[in-house]
Amino acid sequence: MSEMSTTRKAALWVGVVFLLGAALGGVIGYSYEHHLVSAASTPLPEPVRRAQRVEQLTQLLNLTSAQSQQVDAILLQKHGEAKALHDQTDAQFEQIRQKGRDQLRAVLTPEQKPKFEEFLKSLDQQRKRNSSK
Fold first, then answer.
1. Confidence bin at 51 (pLDDT 50/70/90)
2. Are the C-beta atoms of 75 and 54 separated by less than 8 Å?
3. Do the Cβ atoms of 89 and 81 come closer than 8 Å?
4. Is 111 helix (H, G, I), strand (E, B) or coil?
5. What gap in Å lies between CA 67 and CA 49, rounded to an integer?
6. Are the C-beta atoms of 47 and 76 separated by less than 8 Å?
C-alpha cells in the first residue's frame, strides 16, 4: 500500500508541475504577444513613416537618388497640405459643435443647464480619450 501511495503522490506531483508549466507558459506567451501588439499599434512619427514610404517606393520602382529626394519632397509637401486641411476642418467642426451647444442651452431651463454642462463635460472627455487612441 505504501508503494501505491508513493506512485500516486509522484503522479500527482507530475500533474501539478505540468499544470503549473502550462499556466506559466500561457502567461508568458500572452504577455509577449500583448507587448508585440501594443508596440505595433504605436503610430510612428511622420518623418519615419515618410522615410519608410520613400524607401519602399525607391525599392519597388528602382528610383534614382534624385528621384527619391523628389518623392520625399512631394510627400512632405502633401503631408503639410493634408494636415492644414485637417486642422481647418477640425476648427470648422468645433464651431458647428459650439453653435449647436449654444442653441441647446437657449432652450434649457436654469435647472437643466447644470446637468447639460455635466453631460457635455463627459462627452468631451470621451471624445478626447477616443482621439488619443
1. very high
2. yes
3. no
4. coil
5. 18
6. no
